[in-house]
Amino acid sequence: MKRMNDILRLSTLIAVLFLGIQNLAVAQVSYMLDEAESSAFVRGTSTIHDWEMKVEQLQGSITLAEAGSINSLQKGNFQTNVESLKSDRNLMNKKTYEALKSKKHPQITVQVNSVKEVQGKLVANLVVTIAGQTQKVTDEIELKTLANQSLSVQGILDLKMTSYQVEPPVALMGTIKTDDEVKVAYHLIFKQK
């Protein structure tokens, strides 16, 4: 009889644990980046003009503990191919790919470690890898839940090329020099899986 009660208690405990774990898994919500609806641009300046490169390929996903609640972010990652950065100048594209060492390090990746509200603003803690070099950075973001339950994430990430051991590109025997600082402006749309 005692053995039967022990088996019954153990079975009940296993059932409760299983249902609890199942509910935790259901509570997690995964979102995939909608590349067609998203955009990102790298902007900078040089000794003769401002410049812009469009990021033509983006991939990424985020996982939230609760749908629509960025404060419940559990993980996030984004990546692009270096050679998907495009300007309307072929020489600039070539110099950029060389500076970013695209043959050896073809991807730029961003890992989102956490998002916290700081003085009424959302701040993302990121790990950014460019040209094989990794840096921890923070970025202020704007998050909106859209009518279709998609998420909109916008921001402008300030970076220095030399922080990633990238030599700012030069052209025409050094007469045109790119500034070290660049801004990555992004508007990303995520749809629930």
UniProtKB/TrEMBL annotation:
Record-linked SMART domains: YceI
InterPro entries: Lipid/polyisoprenoid-bd_YceI (IPR007372), TTHA0802/YceI-like_sf (IPR036761)
Origin superkingdom: Bacteria
Source organism per UniProt: Sunxiuqinia elliptica
TM spans (from-to): none
Protein's name according to its UniProt entry: YceI-like domain-containing protein
Domain Lipid/polyisoprenoid-binding YceI-like: 30-191
One Pfam match: YceI
